[in-house]
Design a protein that fits this description.
Elements: E1 4-9, H1 14-25, E2 30-36, E3 45-48, E4 51-56, E5 68-71, H2 75-87, E6 91-94, H3 110-113, E7 123-125, H4 129-145, E8 147-156, H5 162-173, H6 206-218, E9 225-232, E10 239-247, H7 253-262, E11 266-268, H8 280-283, E12 289-297, E13 303-310, H9 314-330
Parallel strand pairs: 1-2, 1-5, 2-4, 5-6, 6-7, 8-9, 11-12
Antiparallel strand pairs: 3-4, 8-10, 10-13, 12-13
Helix pairs in contact: 1-9, 4-6, 4-9
The protein binds NADP nicotinamide-adenine-dinucleotide phosphate.
Length: 332
């Protein structure tokens, strides 16, 4: 058996720690593991599932002779260091949005467009967390019934904003003002904030544009009509998405349910009579994309409504990144 030498950049962050966890859970066979964080953390130790990792800082040629480098330390770190890691011979799997829309960088969800990863030039991008769960559910429906238009509204947990997001909610709930350290524009406890990332001139946020553009790229559907509204809510782990889909042809809820039951990576939880539908609290710490509330939207021609939930730190980031490495090793 061949062992894989890897680096995790941002190892002390929410996504980086989860990558180290997922690697152990999935028995991804690692040799050397170089855990990297900011200069201030260098030398400290990180304990993940009983394994201790010494934290290193970024320095020239730290990536030499490693096979994979998982990056989850934000856009500026990726922009500076991911090309260097690729030059040093690593396959970079990048969680930031820095390279996602570049033509020469594959943007991959293995259940949807596995083959694209082999067209890389050293960097493979992991999509935005909200995009990953959306396309995992949309792709099998597009294959079966051809999607015309998608309207998605998100209900995103605070962990989507990393360690600082979780700390902000937890301290606000304890009555401690977190304003200065909070990554959110307003108090998040007991609130819903229709604002994730920065606003552009057309009044969409960057998070909304990411969802729209990344979905078209991953599904290889430049023509797909899609609009998004992204909202931060005070849940800890797991993003919810209310999705309205218009198809080219007539479909009923049972056909949609059946296509999703057959799809990879999806669990259908759809029994309203017994109060069974996907919720963040149940999806947290799981790898599946959960879909429920599947019903016909009779206000449009060939419309379906559904509700998608998935753990943003796992399938939305860490698990998808590790799956990319696993599939890369298996080959074309
Ligand atoms: N959270 C999510 O749901 C999610 C989902 C998809 C993608 N992402 C993306 O993944 C990345 C990380 O997100 P996160 O939620 O894990 O953030 P986080 O919890 O804030 O962690 C950030 C990590 O980056 C490290 N870091 C910061 N500055 C650094 C530097 N100059 N050099 C090296 N390491 C540095 C931090 O180290 P210290 O501990 O030393 O500060 C920490 O390990 C972001 O690009 C984010 O957009 C996040």
């Amino acid at each position: 058996m061949r062992l894989h030498d890897i680096a995790v950049v941002g190892a002390s962050g929410l996504v980086g720690r989860k990558i180290l966890e997922v690697i152990q859970e999935r028995k991804f066979e690692t040799g050397k593991v170089v855990a990297i964080a900011s200069d201030g953390s260098a030398g400290k130790e990180l304990n993940v599932k009983g394994k201790t990792f010494k934290l290193h800082k970024l320095e020239p040629h730290i990536f030499k002779n490693l096979e994979f480098a998982f990056f989850s330390a934000g856009g500026s770190v990726s922009r500076e260091w991911a090309p260097k890691a690729a030059e040093d011979g690593c396959i970079v799997i990048d969680n930031s949005s820095s390279f996602r829309m570049q033509d020469d960088v594959p943007l991959v969800v293995p259940e949807v467009n596995r083959q694209d990863m082999f067209k890389n030039k050293g960097i493979i991008s992991n999509p935005n967390c909200s995009t990953i769960q959306l396309v995992t559910a949309l792709k099998p429906l597009d294959n079966a019934f051809k999607i015309k238009r998608v309207v998605v509204s998100t209900y995103q947990s605070v962990s989507g904003a990393g360690n600082k997001g979780v700390t902000a909610l937890e301290s606000e709930l304890r009555g401690i003002q977190s304003a200065s350290a909070s990554p959110f524009a307003h108090k998040i406890a007991y609130n819903a904030i229709p604002h994730i990332d920065v606003f552009f001139d057309d009044s969409y946020t960057r998070e909304e544009l990411k969802m729209m553009n990344e979905t078209r790229k991953i599904m290889n559907r430049k023509d797909l009509q899609i609009t998004a509204t992204c909202v931060r809510i005070p849940t800890l782990y797991g993003h919810g998405e209310s999705v309205n889909i218009e198809f080219d042809k007539k479909v009923n809820a049972d056909e949609v349910r059946e296509a999703l039951i057959q799809a990879k990576g999806i669990k259908v939880v759809d029994n309203p009579q017994t109060n069974h539908y996907p919720m963040p609290i149940d999806a947290a710490d799981k790898d599946d994309v959960f879909v429920g509330r599947i019903r016909v939207d009779s206000s449009v021609k060939h419309g379906i409504n559904l509700w998608i939930v998935s753990d943003n730190v796992r399938k939305g980031a860490a698990t998808n990144a590790v799956q990319i490495a696993e599939e890369y090793i298996k080959g074309k």
